[in-house]
Every structure is written in C-alpha cells, then in structure tokens.
Amino acid sequence: MSSRNEILASLRRGLRRGAASEAQQEAVRQRLQHHPRTLIPARGQQPGEARVELFIRMAREAAAEVVVLASIEQLPAAVAQTLASEGERELVVADDERLAALDWNTPDGPIRCHRRVARVGDRASLTPAFAGIAETGTLLLYSRPESPTSLNFLPDTHLVLLRREDLVGVYEEGWDRLRAVCGERLPRSVNLITGPSRSADIEQKLQLGAHGPRRLVIYLVG
Amino acid sequence: MQIKSPEFKQNARRALHDANLQRALGNLKAGFPGKRAAAIARLPEFEQLRQQARELKEHILQHLDLYLEAFEARVIENGGQVHWCRTSEEARQTILRICQEQNAKTVTKGKSMVTEEIDLNQFLQENGIRPVETDLGEYILQLRGDHPSHIIAPAIHLNLDDVAHTFHHRHQRPRLNDPAALLAEAREMLRQQFVAADVGITGANFLVAETGSSIIVTNEGNGDLTQLLPNTHIVVASIEKVVPTLEDMTLFLRLLARSATGQEFSVYNTLSTGGRRPGERDGPEHFHVVLVDNGRSEMVGTEFQEMLRCIRCSACMNHCPVYGAVGGHSYGWVYPGPMGSVLTPQLIGLERAALLPNASTLCGQCEAVCPVGIALPKLMRHWREREFERHLTPRAARWGLGGWAFFATRPRLYRLLSAGASWCLRRLGGKKGRLRSVLLAGGWTDHRDLPTPSGRPFMQQWRSRQRQEHTP
Q1: Cα A33 to the center of its chain, rounded Å
Q2: Per-residue pLDDT for A20 more than 70?
Q3: Domain spanning B43-297 has what CATH number?
Q4: Residue B39 in contact with residue B263, Cβ under 8 Å?
Q5: Which partner from A83, A222, B223, B370 sits 20 to 30 angstroms from B237, CA to CA?
C-alpha cells in the first residue's frame, strides 16, 4: 500500500469509519465551494472616511509610511522626494499602464524607471497594490507578468501605489475581489504585506529591515 | 538531532544554574505575555474567534482525509506535486530525491519546525547538499551548530554577546555589538545565498484545500526570498495543517500573530500556489508539497486528537512557569513547553519522553492562553496515566502513588492521618507558620520554606459549620 493510502487509512481508522459518508462529502464540497465567512471583527467594517483613517493609522503603527495624494499625477514628484532622501534616482517598476503613462521628469530631476524583475542590489521598487485592507493596514499584492513578486521583496525600499477605491475593510473583501479577478485559480504568489521587514531574534529587541525591504512607503491616491 | 529528553532533570538543573540562559529567558518573560495581552485587549471578538477556531479545527479533523484529498487535487491542477510521507525517513528521502533531480548543491531554508522534526539539515549535509538557514535566529544557530529552543523565537536562549561573538568568528569581520548592525551583517551575508540556491525549502503555517496553496507567516521576508528565488520550492508540512478555505485560514490568521508575538498581523503572509505561470519572469518553476504524518494520524480518535488543533503560536510556552525557568533545550528535543510535552511522547515514544508531561505544575496558564483551546494540562495527565499503566513510572513514585491511593480510598483513615499530620506541622511551625526543613521534603525545602497548615482541616471546618447551620 502506498504511503498516501496508509495515511488516509490510518486517519479513517481513527475516525472509526471507512470512506466518508455522502453527507460528509457533501458538507466538505459545500464548504469548499461556498467558503462561508467566519466571524468578522467589527473594527474593519467601517464606511468611507473612517475606513481610510483606520488603514492609515494601522499601516503607520506597523512602521509603514503613508503619503496621501490627491491624484496619480502627483505620484512622480512624491516618489522623487522619497528617493531623494535616499540619494537615489533609479527605480524598478511594475509593468503597469497607469505608471507608464506618468511623466517621470520631476522638478527634482528625471527618475529612471526599469521594467524588469528585481535583482540583488536594487535600491527601490514601485508596484501597484491590488487592495489595501484597513483592518490591519495591510497591502494585498499578487504575482503576474506585469508585477513580478521579486519587486516586493528584494529592493531596500518598496514603494506602493494604492488607489483609494481599492481600499477595503477586511481580508474577506480582499479574497472576494481576488476571486473576481483571477477566477478559481489563485495567482502563483499572493502577498499580504503589513509594514517593512523586521526581526526580534536578538534579545527580543525589534529591529526594522531584516531580509525584506527596510522601508515601505504607501502612496494613497485619489 | 540527538534526543535528550530522558535527561530532562539534569538538563533543567544545569539550566537553572546557567546565568546567561536565565538572563536571556528574562527577555522572553518581559516581552511576549504583555504584548499578547495588549493585542487581545484591542480585539473585543477574540474570545468568540477562539471558540470558532476550536470548532472549525474539530470539523477539519473529522474530515481530514477529505480535505487532504481536496488539497492534493488542487495542487496537481496547479502543476505542483504532493508527496505523502509516513515517517521522517520517508520525508527526508523524498526531499533528497527532489533536490537531486535538480542537481542541487545548495538549498535555502525558511524557518520550519517540521524540518527540525525530521532532522533534515544533517541528512542533506551527509548527502552533499548544503542547507542554509535564512531566518536570523536559525542562521545564528546554524553558525553555532545549535538548535532552536523556542518554536517562533529560536535563539531566545542567546544574548547579544553570544551573537556578536559568533558573527565575529564565523564571518571573520570586526566585532559588532549592536543588534541593528548584526542584523545588517546577516542580511548582507545571506543576499547572495538567496540567489545562488537551487532549491528553497519552507514550512507552512496552513495549507488551503480550496486553492491548493501553502501560506507562510513571517516578519523578516527571508521565507519569501527562499520560496521566490530558487528554481524549485519545496513546502514541508504536517498533515494537520490543512484548512478548508481562504476564509477559514483568515480566522486562524486573526488569532495567530496576536497569540504569538502580540502583533496585529505579521509583516508577510504569503500564499504560494503552484509554480511559475506563463509570462512570469520570476518565481520557482517547480512546486512540491511534502506532507508529513509521523504518527499524527494515529492521534485521531484518541484522547490526544485535540493536540492536532495546535497552530504553533507558542503562547503556551511563553506563559509556562516551567519553560520560563528551564528554557526550551531542557526538554531535549524539537518541541518544548506544554505543547511539546504533549506532542513529543507521540513523536519519539513515551519511553523517552515520559519526564516531559511530568514537568508541569498543571497551573493551567497554557490552556488559558491557547487560541484553539487545547486542554494541555488534561493531555499531560493522560500521558502520566499511560506512563503509569505501562510501568514506566519510577519505582519510588509508584510506591508513593500506591501508598497515597491506599489512604485516599479509605476516607476515615485518610482524615485521621491528615488531621494528625496537620496538627504536627502546625506545632513544629510555631508562630512563624513555616518550616525550613522537613524530613523527606528536601525537594521543596532546599529552595524555599514550607508553609504550615494555618488552621483546622477542611473536613473538620465543614462539619462544624454544618452543625452551626443546623442549630437554631
């Protein structure tokens, strides 16, 4: 008997049954198909401005920087300012139409945008978020040819564009949006990101900037 | 990893006299419990979530075969492979075979307790493959030839000095004494390793049956680089990690970080579903899931089934007075603290682990903080019963228990003797109400005074009160 069958048989022995009954199989099918929600805390379920404020507060609490912009046209100047503080002009960007349409010749000088995967040594990247989750100030991003996952993890500074209309209250809304866009098959990598990387492995003293980005800047636009 | 659980007593004695370790354990006690309490105070629904999580886990365990099959089907649909492994040996061989198929020389590793359980690193090394731990704590331990002493804070037993010394010697660099600088040095040393690795191995906090995904919950980002950059990603996970849907996973995620580090949410919660898709320019080509049983399926349907609810948050050990006093290495194997004291006898055999479920005061803190409500003290008592039934209990303890049972089943005799003993102790204790030494009680009085009974025995008081109530 294969190990697979041995393990399944051992489980069924423990459960004191053979193959599951039709009712049990149906219960499992139903749960997988309809993915019912469990209790959702009230905190994230707030309308309009309260939700935006919650997102900003929670993201900042997690040591992310949040820059509020009225329109996407203001993004290049805001990015230039962030990069100037790092003495940087190079940017690895996601292959996104909205970003490509912008004028990257900013008052602080031109920003050179590279549309490729990230490499060791890259200082900064810019990617659009698929959604923001107010509950914990979390960003939801996913992998696709236009937005390689390495941009989210390798560079020292991760810049993220988040449109106000993509801000949801709770994780469950994020899953529903993801299902709507991607169908039944999840993208290869789905990233929930809350603040820059950190470690407390030395004497339980929290240090920001472990192996992922040292800085996370969210431009909340619209 | 060598099993040192049978030497628990010696380990504990050494640990209690190790000033460095005691200082390090102080960091644990000063940190985790307070942070957890603060996080939970901010989430009024925590208790309800906990109840739901407990019920959901029971539902999953009742249908575990079905959810595992559903998970497997989705992984395969997404182009991945699932390998079912009955034992540690089978899991090691499977992982080695996958690595060899890729001609792997180096593998990077994200933090994973199950790969400690199956003793993967040493095995890979013996077979010419170099494993590189990338979690900061695990990296420090690997440089020292050491093992984790805590399931989420692996290097909690070390102090800044230890890390500074290790990096200075192993990196051949000037000595740094600042945690931030040491972290930066580790980041720099590991950058190239991430890119150079042929295979990345991670654990999984959960496996999602609905989507065929694994999820890792981390703060450093090392796990993400581990599973992203090499050409092959191997997920190693034990069978009870499967949850039905993304919504169900979310329920556990709301409990996990708060119970573990007291964070609202960990920095990176990353789902991996299959290998690289058409048009993608990064991510692994190959995606493997190695499912490890290792005796867990035999816990289903027994009194230990509820241990399979564990989500490895570490709250039980963070609140355990015994763990806090002796540290994780005293337990002598992979899983320390209360959850380890219940799981270890199942995984390595009660003969070798019998001391662990006895290393508890049964104070109940672990159960009180467990996010899935595992009755850890009850389970430790079950192991003690099995130990007694299988005649593994030491002779002196058996005699003691036998003697106690003799009196306990003869209430009149018991009351007479306990009243007599209580009277004697009260006399000996005098006005101070405590004794500095008592015959046969050196285990207690060597370290503290024994308080003497302060009044008449309970049964006497009860009877006289009953009499008072009945006399008008």
Answers
A1: 25
A2: yes
A3: 3.40.50.10420
A4: yes
A5: B370
